[in-house]
Amino acid sequence: MRMEDASLIPDKTILLDIVRMQMPFGKYKGRLIKDLPLYYLEWLASKGFSNTRIGQILSTTFEIKTNGLEFLLDGLE
C-alpha cells in the first residue's frame, strides 16, 4: 500500500470515541459527544473543525447526525 492510500483507510476507533468520549471544551463540556445536539455540531461545523483527533470525532458525529445514521452507534457503549 502506498503512503498516500493510508489516509483512505477508515479509523474504526472513531465510532467508539463518539459513544465513550466526553466533550472536552465549550458549552457542552463533560457531555458525551454522541449526545451533543445537532444545532451545536452545525455551529461547530460553520466555524470549521480542527485538523486534530477531536476535530475528526466531531466532524464524524456531525455527518452521522446530519444524515440520520445514529443507528451506527447503537450497541457500541
What's this entry about, in short?
This protein is an all-alpha fold.
Describe this structure in words.
This protein has one domain (3-72). Helix 1 packs across helix 3 (53-66) and helix 2 packs across helix 3 (53-66). The chain has helices at residues 13-20, 38-47, 53-66. Helices cover 42% and strands 0% of the residues. The model has no long low-confidence stretch (mean pLDDT 90). It is an all-alpha fold.
Structural class: mainly alpha
Please indicate the percent range of residues in DSSP E strands (runs of 2 or more). under 5%
Q: How far is it from the N-terminal to the C-terminal residue, by CA? A: 32 Å
Helix tally equals 3
Principal-axis shape equals globular
Average pLDDT taken over every residue: 90
What's the SSE blueprint?
Blueprint: H1 13-20, H2 38-47, H3 53-66
Helix pairs in contact: 1-3, 2-3
Question: What keyword list fits this structure?
Answer:
single chain, 77 residues, mainly alpha, 42% helix, globular
